[in-house]
Design brief:
Layout lengths: L1 H4 L3 E5 L2 H8 L7 E6 L3 E8 L3 E8 L5 E4 L13 H5 L7 E5 H8 L15 H4 L8 H4 L4 E6 L6 E7 L2 E7 L1 E2 L14 E8 H11 L6 E7 L2 E8 L2 E8 L4 E8 L6 E8 L4 E3 L4 E6 H5 L2 H6 L2 E7 L4 E8 L6 E8 L5 H15 L1
Antiparallel strand pairs: 1-5, 1-7, 2-3, 2-6, 3-4, 4-21, 6-10, 7-8, 8-9, 11-17, 11-19, 12-13, 12-18, 13-14, 14-15, 15-16, 19-20, 20-21
Family: Belongs to the rad1 family.
Pfam family, one: Rad1
Subcellular location: Nucleus
């Protein structure tokens, strides 16, 4: 009877900050879908079935992790009650407000706006206040419990002698379908330091582009974007330790080009044949928080043009690494030509 009354899921983490830093990587959507399994928690955010972000909080991130798969019976079955109760349902899934969960995890001031994009800033920049971990010498713990389907997700935070309990409403699962990505037929695979790609996306965003074009050949990887404000190109050479960033802004018909050196160092470079595809820039821009927290990023594309960005993030507490995955559906037809059309109209004016 005690086992029957125990919650479906309960876990304790010694670092609410680590959970916050991982989940904020997919904070572009108002709701996230949560799937609980024996291996951990999978959080998935999506936008219009063309952008998907996923964070997996594996059980190793928690000091204790207990999961009891909910049992269900088949009403029309002729089996006995005991046999029906032995039937195990699929892993439970529900939706939750992602902003509310993030606000809860940082309720003790685990992050500040200035340090939001720097997961190691707490130790690196010397910033401390009266409530920082370095001053208090403690690490806020986090307990997460989900009793059963229909119940709220209960988050209990403890810091020193203060305990805060928050019940977050759960919703019916979102109508999400994973964006298909064929790992067996890759036309592009590049592994590089995340900071290089972060700098490249930041540089390209200066022209406020609508789309990002990713072009690869057996010798180089090129990211380009353009708008009425100008154009920018970032090129990484396969055999070079430096990437060449070429920027050209054009607002009045006169080009103003500058070239500067940026770090390249592509650890893995596999492009069997030329590849070129465009993606919505704002979608790719949503991954900047993950890029800022990650140490490495794997850039992959399959034969359908679906882009996958997988970020490796080093865990602050206890070592190890976690992964955040993004998938992007490419622009097709008129979508890909929309930016060029806008530029031509601006030039005619």
């Amino acid at each position: 009877m005690a086992d029957r009354d125990s919650p479906v899921f309960s876990a304790v983490s010694s670092s609410a900050r680590q959970l916050y830093l991982l989940l904020r990587c997919i904070s572009f959507a108002p709701k996230a879908q949560v799937q609980i399994s024996e291996e951990g928690l999978r959080f998935t955010a999506s936008e219009s079935s063309v952008l998907e972000g996923m964070v997996f909080l594996e059980k190793a991130l928690f000091t204790t992790f207990q999961y009891k798969a909910p049992r269900h019976s088949t009403p029309d079955s002729d089996a006995s009650v005991d046999e029906q109760e032995d039937e195990i349902a699929t892993n439970p899934t529900f939706a939750i407000s992602l902003p509310s969960l993030l606000e809860t995890l940082q309720i003790f001031g685990l992050s500040t706006e200035n340090n939001a994009n720097k997961p190691n800033a707490y130790r690196r920049d010397g910033y401390n206040n009266a409530f920082s971990h370095d001053v208090l010498g403690i690490s806020g713990s986090c307990s997460i419990t989900w009793e059963k389907p229909g119940n709220p997700l209960t988050v209990i935070l403890q810091e020193a002698q203060i305990t805060t309990t928050c019940d977050l409403v759960t919703y019916e699962p979102l109508s999400l379908a994973d964006i298909p990505f064929n790992r067996e037929n890759l036309v592009l695979k590049v592994i590089m330091r995340a900071s290089y790609l972060h700098d490249a996306i930041t540089e390209l965003s200066s022209t406020n582009p609508q789309s990002l074009t990713l072009t690869a050949s057996p010798t180089s990887l090129i990211l380009s974007a353009s708008s009425t404000l100008g154009s920018a190109i970032v090129e990484f050479d396969r055999d070079s330790k430096t990437g060449h960033i070429s920027t050209n802004r054009n607002t009045n018909g006169n080009g103003n080009g500058t070239d500067k050196q940026g770090s390249g160092l592509l650890e893995t470079f596999h492009v069997p044949e030329p590849f070129s595809q465009s993606y919505k820039f704002s979608h790719v821009g949503n991954a900047k928080k993950a890029l800022a927290s990650a140490t490495k990023v794997s850039v992959r594309a399959d034969e359908q043009g679906v882009l996958s960005l997988q970020f490796m993030i080093e865990n602050l507490e206890g070592g190890g690494v976690s992964f955040v995955d993004y998938r992007f559906v490419p622009l097709v037809g008129e979508e890909g030509d929309e930016t060029s059309t806008t530029e031509e109209e601006g030039e005619e004016e």
